[in-house]
Structure formats: structure tokens, C-alpha cells
């Protein structure tokens, strides 16, 4: 996944650095309509797998979860 910019000059940077298939972790497999895109379709039937994936993320974050939350709260992104 790259970052795109437009203006007097158009382009992108960091192409190929980041994977964009993180949603696969939540029980779906991205279907590529084009080589550079992935499409996902989640619905209520997927809720159990999504919740299990979120719980795994919370467990893996461990001690970092509170530190990340503190940073986000200080930036006004999360309510306390």
C-alpha cells in the first residue's frame, strides 16, 4: 500500500512497503478485483470471527495496549 499525493506534482511513495491484507486476520480473505486492490465483505455472520480476531489483537498487544491508548487519548482520538 503506498501513499498518494496530488497537487503541482502527483505521485506516490512507499509502494510495496505495507501489506493491505490485515482484514484477513478477521476471518475473510480479500478478493483482488485488480492486482493492486483487495475487497472484503463482512456481515453479521462474520461477527464471531471478527470478535475472536479482536481479542487475539488485544492479547498480543499486552502491555502496549495501555500505552497506545494513552497516546491516542492525548491526541483526542479516544474518549476516556
Short description:
By secondary structure, the chain is mainly alpha-helical.
Poorly predicted spans: none
Measure the end-to-end span: 32 Å
Assembly state (oligomeric): single chain
DSSP helical segment count: 2
Approximate shape: flat
Q: Let me know the largest β-sheet.
A: 2 strands, antiparallel
Instruction: Note the run of SSEs as H and E.
Output: EEHH
Salient structural properties:
mainly alpha
Report on the architecture of this protein.
- There is one protein chain.
- The protein is mainly alpha-helical.
- A hairpin with a 5-residue loop joins strand 1 (3-5) and strand 2 (11-13).
- It has two helices and two strands; from the N terminus they run ββαα.
- The two termini are 32 Å apart.
- 0% of the residues are buried.
- The chain is flat.
- The protein has helices spanning 47-61, 64-74, and strands at 3-5, 11-13.
- It has one domain (3-74).
- Helices cover 32% and strands 8% of the residues.
- It has a two-stranded antiparallel ribbon with strand order 1-2.
